[in-house]
Amino acid sequence: MNDASHLNPLDQQYVWHPFTQQQGWSEETPLMIERGEGVYLYDVDGKRYIDGTAALWCNVHGHRHPDLDRAARDQLDRIAHSTMLGLSHPGATELAARLIEIAPAGLQRVFYSDSGSTAAEIALKMAFQYHQQRGDTARTRFVRLREAYHGDTIGSVSVGGIDLFHATYRPLLFETLAAEPGDADHMEQLLSAHEGEVAAVIMEPLVQGAGGMIVHPEGYLRAVRELCNRHGVLLICDEVATGFGRTGTMFAVEREGVSPDFLCLAKGITGGYLPLAATLTTETVYEGFLGAPAEAKTFFHGHTYTGNPVACAVALANLDIFEKERTIERLQPKIDLLDRRLAEIAAMPGVTEVRSRGVMVGIDLGEHDPELRVGHRVTREARERGAFVRPLGDVVVLMFPLSITEPELNELLDITAASIEAVVAALPERAAS
Ligand SMILES: *Cc1c(COP(=O)(O)O)cnc(C)c1O
Predict the structure, then answer these.
(1) How far is the CA of 242 from the centre of ligand 1 (A)?
(2) In the 3-class helix/strand/coil scheme, how is 194-240 assigned residue by residue?
(3) Which residue's C-alpha comes closest to atom 11 of ligand 1?
(4) Are residues 165 and 243 in the same domain?
(5) What is the pLDDT of residues 50-78, one digit of tens each?
(6) For residue 346, what are the domain limits?
(7) How far is the CA of 326 from the centre of ligand 1 (A)?
């Protein structure tokens, strides 16, 4: 243990945290995480917390997995970073081949970047430019889903649909067509009404994560794919959250036998270790960008740390662990346990709905005065009880590492249930529920 009392004032004086109202933050003591082991986080005082967020939805095999640690160290012994602009490197090359091997048929090309937001932006720009270069110049619009989340940069916010996060920026954004999640008829109406104008539909397949774990009805994704085909529209599936096993299969699109024109990957791609993203696309789209330099069909996009070698090395080790530890296969009994326990939680007072698919969980505590900060209070209670969870408004989200054991999962669910119970019991008006 070490004395970290000097850190809190420094955090409060200098650091501005993401998605955080700093006024509230500075009234509380920051939780300083110093190390991790498996599904546990340890703060600077040595107190242990089960990681119910998987480091904000990206950790897969637990913290400090020896294979991932070794992959990073071995790469550091060779080189930390070069560039993908004008150079290549073994890790990015091998990883591209491995991703194509596990991705749905039809996806043939890998474009790297470094965050989920950029993975989505790249797909948007590629889809737009693809149509332009084919002479289909009227296809300039995008269809997105209500409550969609594709990242925080201006382009990805443009296709976002969460008013709390996105409404402020409306004047800066390009206009989009908003489709009702899960409603294929509405999608059909939009595509028909805007025949020949739509470049692509962008969606999170099966589950809209940041929108509050909105689970689509079965068959919706398949129906959207067919509609896109019929209307000459490209389909972008953003699997930044759902990818790498979260819904119980490697990729969510597999569940409905869908192959999108773009697959956006980030979060779990390095097992939650390092920033890396990939936008996968088809040979057809790729070929639309080929031409003599003077034709200017180049995709003029690339980030400094695109395809970073350390991140690629860890991403390769991540895929190896999926095979070696049979991660997906061994997830199924945990999903069964989770579903049984969630049915109990759904029956608790104050819980209006539990939504889940695989190991993506949203426990909805209903509509409350935002001043009450119900979701936040559950987080505080959970912290006292030894778990770190983070809500989306008044939806308590569980997104633990896939490597969680059954006893650890029970521990997390016990803490979550007890925390919800404590907060609900203390609410001023219980009459509503
Ligand atoms: C988290 C997320 C993003 C953004 O990823 P960043 O790495 O935070 O930029 C994009 N799409 C989805 C579906 C996400 O869940």
Answers:
(1) 10
(2) CCCCEEEEEECCCEECCCCCEECCCCHHHHHHHHHHHHCCEEEEECC
(3) 150
(4) yes
(5) 999 999 999 999 999 999 999 999 999 99
(6) 31-61+326-432
(7) 26
